[in-house]
Amino acid sequence: MTVFIWVETAMDLRKAWFTMSEQEERKEDLQQTGKKEPITSEYRPASRQEKIGASGELVADKDFEFMKEKIKERPVNRKKLVRRTILTASMAVIFGLIACFTFLVLEPLFSNMLYPEEEPKQVTFPEVEEEMLPEDMLQSQVQIPFKENGTEEVQTEEMTEADKSEIEIKDYQVLYDKMYEIAKESQKSMVTVVGVTSDVDWFNNPYESKGQTSGLLLADNGKELLVLADKKTVEEAETIQVTFCDGEQATGNLRASDAITGLSIISIPLESVGADTKDAITMADLGSSNSNNLLGSAIIAIGTPMGTGNSVAYGMLTSVGNTISVADNSYKLMTTDIYGSPNAGGVILDMSGKIVGVIDMGYNEEDTQNLVSAIGISELKKTIQKLSNGQKMAYLGIEAIDVTAQANLNKGVPFGAFVTEINMDSPAMQSGIQSGDVIVQIGADKIENMAQYVDALLGYQPDDEVKLTIMRQGKEEYREMELTIKLDSQD
């Protein structure tokens, strides 16, 4: 409809323009020649109604003077013309706005239909239930060659004490060389993460503050590189700079964080990473912290165990049985004999180069503040996996432990997650859960230990409503209760 009005108005404008132009040209011709506008009649019989005078002008015949009439052109209605011009311009503007809006709305839809964009791959970290066997440990056999008659032979005779001492020293150096090769290869998956924040001093002078930590390349989801790093360094940073093992830098974005573990995931667009850097880096190989042979085994610490970037330390695991209870989770704390920095960061590796723990010095006692400690990787895997896929962590707000077989047998405590503490203002407190309750079911998942509780809770999102079945101790026995709880977010 708008197009028809516009065309009609344009034709009227064209006609009015030419009419006015003809009238102006006629007036100018008459003024230049000094002639008057000829008189015309609407009726002309066969006989002449007009005569040509001496001056060449047309003179009306006296017999028909009573029939004189002047035909005038249709006057131009300027007000109507202005109204139509304004209407046409307005409709054109409205049409243009509608067309732009339609294009902006439909263009992404048609683009996705014609050129569908691939979704990022879901990141998964499968459980690794491998034990470190004695044959997996580094062993080196050094043979000392002796040249006799231009050939090399291995001495098989009984060696002196000096020879034995020399062999032990060489073996020791060979062992360290082998361990460094493992560390050097694993450092390809390490990055340096710097969080930059702008601020002003007391004199209103702008300055930048930078926090630095070690990061771990976890995965490539097809669109981004995902890096595990300390939350404190990047949570309030305006800019996140990531430096790879070859010195190349890229800008990252905070993808997700976990307030309980203090870990975060940083995403780096693949398009911002050069081809040479992609060839130089490797993704981290996550191992297992549940092996029975970890205690007393040799380990390597990389990242910033000494407080400085790209530092390396060697040692052994001195304990692996301590458990840390935190909100809605529990972690295995592993300690080492490596004397490092209280601000140490990074990861620890086994002798196959697999990561068995993430360095965390926040749980050390006062007398062991400088001994490098780490949280077991097996307990962190599912949390890291959820953060890597951009999912938020659901929050119930309890601390719990496993029910031992002795407590079940002697005191009748049912197997499940035994609640030891309730966090203030948490969904658990608001729903009436108490210390001493035993959570035995979440939704359709049966709960017999803390690990099953963690796995079940990780399957939910904040704001989900979930049914909990708990066992509460009565005067004589435990009684079953059901609660419906709306989960919250950790933030």
Write the layout of secondary structure elements.
Elements: H1 2-33, E1 50-52, E2 58-60, H2 78-114, E3 145-148, E4 151-154, H3 161-186, E5 190-200, E6 206-220, E7 224-230, H4 231-234, E8 239-243, E9 249-258, E10 263-269, H5 275-280, E11 298-304, E12 311-326, E13 329-339, E14 345-349, E15 355-359, E16 371-376, H6 377-388, E17 394-395, E18 398-402, H7 405-411, E19 417-422, H8 427-431, E20 438-442, E21 445-446, H9 450-458, E22 465-473, E23 478-486, E24 488-489
Antiparallel strand pairs: 1-2, 3-4, 5-6, 5-8, 6-7, 7-10, 8-9, 9-10, 11-12, 11-14, 12-13, 13-16, 14-15, 15-16, 17-24, 18-19, 19-20, 20-21, 20-22, 22-23
Describe this structure in words.
The chain is an alpha+beta fold and 491 residues long. Among the domains are: 189-280, Trypsin-like serine proteases (Thrombin, subunit H); 298-388, Thrombin, subunit H; 394-489, Roll (Pdz3 Domain). Helices cover 28% and strands 32% of the residues. It is built from nine helices and 24 strands. It has helices at residues 2-33, 78-114, 161-186, 231-234, 275-280, 377-388, 405-411, 427-431, 450-458; strands at residues 50-52, 58-60, 145-148, 151-154, 190-200, 206-220, 224-230, 239-243, 249-258, 263-269, 298-304, 311-326, 329-339, 345-349, 355-359, 371-376, 394-395, 398-402, 417-422, 438-442, 445-446, 465-473, 478-486, 488-489. The strands form six sheets. The protein has a six-stranded antiparallel beta barrel with strand order 5-6-7-10-9-8. Strands 11-12-13-16-15-14 form a six-stranded antiparallel barrel. The longest helix has 37 residues, at 78-114. The relative contact order is 0.08.
